[in-house]
Amino acid sequence: MTPDKLTDAVRRVSANEGLSMAAVADELGVDVTTLYRHVGGLDALRQIGAEVTAPTVGEWPSSDGLSWREWLEALAHYYRGALHRNPDLVEFAHTAIDPDFERFAHATRTLTDFGFEARAAGFAHGFLINTVVGYVAGELREAELIARGESSLSRYVRALEGDRDSDRITTLRQLDLTPSDFDPDSAFERFLRYAIDGIGAQPGVPA
């Protein structure tokens, strides 16, 4: 069982059915015990699956005709969609998304073409991707809470109904949050604006 054969088996199984030790073992023509002995368990297969489905540079949005801000925004939206399509990418992001630094190099080159200094370009891309991964991780946790009837909105409403004399409640009321503020798409746009504005304020970034 070579690494290439294992990767191909995980790719085929992931494309046709839910990833499992039994399905991959069947695809390889070995028993499950042999596969466990070889890879250690399902998490190892999930990591391989995340690596083979990670977005490639060729799939990235083009920078043609865009400003650097518009390109980073398009890249952030693209990665958010990719992470939602394969949540395992969130858990294994640091090893699966860019194992060979190809994406890091491409992003740095693209941003330096926009006028970034090289170090600023590298940090800008890293910060953006980490922001998106963290946001999607939060979305996935929120989905689990909603399934149990414990959304952030419902917890916020309960907090407002708590001790009305406390400073905490006063501050919460000043936020004046509405249900639309808890919409994940709207919230993502706000977080993305903060992230890109923050990048724009750093040294080595073009005006």
From TrEMBL:
Coiled coil: none annotated. One of its GO terms (biological process) is response to antibiotic. SUPFAM superfamilies: Homeodomain-like (SSF46689), Tetracyclin repressor-like, C-terminal domain (SSF48498). InterPro entries: Homeodomain-like_sf, Tet_transcr_reg_TetR, Tet_transcr_reg_TetR-rel_C_sf. This is Uncharacterized protein. It comes from Mycolicibacterium rhodesiae.
